[in-house]
Amino acid sequence: MNQAQTSPGEQDKRWQFWIDRGGTFTDIVARAPDGRLTTHKLLSENPEQYKDAAVAGIKRLLGIGASDDISPAVVESVKMGTTVATNALLERKGDATALLITKGFRDALRIAYQNRPRLFDRHIVLPELLYDKVVEVEERLGAHGDVITPLDQAQVRRELGALHAQGLRSVAIVLMHGYRFTQHEETIAGIAAEIGFTQISVSHKVSPMMKLVSRGDTTVVDAYLSPILRRYVDQVASQMDGVRLWFMQSNGGLTDAHRFQGKDSILSGPAGGIVGMVRTAKTAGFDKIIGFDMGGTSTDVSHYAGEFEREFETQVAGVRMRAPMMSIHTVAAGGGSILHFDGSRYRVGPDSAGANPGPASYRRGGQLAVTDCNVMLGKIQPKYFPAVFGPAADQSLDRDAVFQKFSDMAEQIFAATGSRRAPEEVAEGFIEIAVGNM
After folding, report:
1. pLDDT tens digits for range 167-184
2. 141: part of which helix (H) or strand (E)?
3. Burial of 76 from C-beta contacts in 10 A (0-12 / 13-18 / 19+)
4. Cα–Cα distance list, 90 to 87, 94, 221, 251, 334 (Å)
5. Backbone angles phi, psi at 246, to 5 degrees
6. Whole-angstrom distance, CA of residue 162 vs CA of residue 160
7. C-alpha 398: how far from its chain's center?
8. Which of 52, 61, 63, 62 is nearest to 26 (CA)?
């Protein structure tokens, strides 16, 4: 039975799912046809057990086999928040992207607005750019649409062909005054599609507003993140044909899966957390709230004082963008942030152990992470943590492995510095660094 054949009365008798797909864990809340609520928790990545945690969790709650499809006759809707794009941005794991920009402006996004958030710093560290290649396009439209320099289509075709041959499949097209006069951007997009680029982000569609830098930054973010997001959405949707699949956007609203774009996905998971936080707090009688959402890869801090706070131009993980989103401060420090000792100092993150292999305590041979510090110090008790680890996904956290790895690191620190520290002291030191990052 497809969705169109299902009457309103039948919809009430179908399952509904709400899912938070984080970088480390996937949490599911389900409402059964009889109104009963149930929850389920899985590692977001466990390739020996399942291909996708959200789909696997739904199937387990429905009691169907791993190879069975999720039928719209049984499931009314799935609504999901995901940090897939957030974590890809924090860890710089998006798709290789090329920027096509009007000739003479190749460094416009690099130079940007010359903002100095830390005015007295003598050593300025610029954020890492998301694009790998830049092509200066021989073209120029005036502010009133007059053609100053005609578009050199042969040059565009030649340059795009070379980029495609190098393996790039994602392109961001940002031209002067392209937000208003779109003909050159449209022509370049058509050529890119002919050549075989699979992700083509054009500024007049992604961010159709003036200001080259803001428009360009947002278009690059979209090109960089949309492919990884699309792969994930398609993977989930392929398992539940006909089921209504919705994703939380950065602005706190839901959108259909096929309209979910990279630029609107940055704070998908955290935005859902804010909405849930506010509803829960109001139920308890509170209307002024500070939110602290620490996940496996990132930590998100938010504020609520009677209404949702949103921003239109913001910066996340050092990347500027112009898109409506919840006002959230995100840092690359979470339970999965990997611990490093470089011979003289402790560092935490920004790289994350994720769910596979995960922290050392996850029984997959991972590196020490912030979660392991808390296990080492007794702040996380394995017996109270979900038993979803090990080959059969039925074991608790491995404290013995954590103790051994911290003991080894303590010896490494002693050899490098001559300072003898207990494993617990090492763990406490890394916790202080992680807290400082937040």
Report:
1. 999 999 999 999 999 999
2. strand 140-141
3. buried
4. 5, 10, 12, 19, 11
5. -120, 150
6. 5
7. 28
8. 52
